[in-house]
Amino acid sequence: MMPDLGRYALEVSAAYVGSLAMLAALVGWVWWRGLRTRRALEAVEMRAKRQ
Amino acid sequence: MTSRSQPSSLWEYANPVRFMRLSDWLLPVVALGAVVLTAIGLIWGFFLTPDDFRQGSTVKIIFLHVPSALMAINAWIMMLVASLIWLIRRHHVSALAAKAAAPIGAVMTLIALFTGAVWGQPMWGTWWAWDPRLPSFLILFLFYLGYIALWSAIDDADTAADLTSVLCLVGSVFALLSRYAAFFWSQGLHQGASLSLQPGTRMDWAYKAPLYVAMAGFVLIFVALLLAGTRTEIRARRMKALIARERMQA
């Protein structure tokens, strides 16, 4: 299934792997930060309700 | 007369509650669209496009380079609009949206720089050239880092929003320069626009069609991450307010 990238196989593969890794890291960071903040807010809201 | 659930003006989304309600159902739809369009665009571009007679298989890098460069510039333009809204109308959601857009724009700029370098090495014989467009993109990346650092360095959110908005106005010069550098100075290695509305277009539809799909995918990636990031910033702001209230009561 892999296309024949000829003599530029390394460059093209590196561009795709590197870019997709950066995108995945960005998506993961945004998702993780969102989850962490939501949980922290829930804890603070619970504490505020108890008071 | 409009009901309470239907906003009569776009400005009503500056209300964090309304924004959270809208983004709650919009985010999954946009995220799904982003995944589908980006996957189609990149798979089509990587597997199904022919090699270029000059560039060989490196032409496939364009499906990452052009969409990321597009979003690198447009993310800053979006931040500029949001910053102006903050400075003029003092809507907190717009300032928080600008803050949320910065890391996304920074990564898009980094991808554009990286793919450009990887393409440039075999095609130009160098990873980097001091031609007008490349340094203006590097400066744009540094502006993104400075913008993110400035937000982190200031505790008071309104002061941070004011100062970062001013930085954003200054950085807009480089965002526009990155876009038009190749036109301002007809020198350097970087070619002009890959896509043009002018007749006698320079790119064949075999490349143009997947490129448009990938570009649409990257736009939706940006919007999805922006919505998610803005929701996080709104929650973080509320949390900060609640903690401050707790401390005052203690």
Given as residue ranges, the uncertain stretches of chain B (5+ residues, pLDDT < 50) are: none
> Average pLDDT across residues of chain A?
93
As a whole number of angstroms, the C-alpha radius of gyration of chain B is 20 Å
Q: Tally of extended strands of chain A? A: 0
How many strands, which pairing sense, and closed or not: the largest β-sheet of chain B?
Answer: none
Please work out how many helical segments of chain B DSSP would assign. Answer: 6
Write down the overall geometry of chain A.
rod-shaped
Shape of chain B: globular
Residue ranges of chain A: pLDDT <50 for 5 or more in a row?
Answer: none
Estimate percent helicity of chain A.
over 70%
Total domains of chain B = 1
Which strand-content bin applies to the residues of chain A? under 5%
Alpha-carbon distance between the two ends of chain B:
45 Å
Sequence of secondary-structure elements of chain B: HHHHHH
Task: Furnish the topology, listing elements before pairings.
The complex is a heterodimer of chains A (51) and B (250).
Chain A: H1 9-50
Chain B: H1 16-47, H2 62-89, H3 92-124, H4 133-153, H5 157-184, H6 205-249
Features:
heterodimer; A: 51 residues; mainly alpha; 1 helix; 82% helix; rod-shaped; B: 250 residues; 6 helices; 75% helix
Structure description:
Chain A has about 50 residues and is an all-alpha fold. Chain A has one helix and no strands. Chain A has one helix at about 10-50. The longest helix of chain A is centred in the middle third of the chain and has 42 residues, at about 10-50. Chain A is rod-shaped. The N and C termini of chain A lie far apart (about 60 Å). Chain B is mostly helical. Chain B has one domain. Chain B is about 75% helix and about 0% strand. Chain B has helices at about 15-45, 60-90, 90-125, 135-155, 155-185, 205-250. The longest helix of chain B is centred in the C-terminal third of the chain and has 45 residues, at about 205-250. Classes of the chains: A mainly alpha (about 50), B mainly alpha (about 250). Chains A and B meet through helix 1 of A and helix 1, helix 2, helix 3 and helix 6 of B.
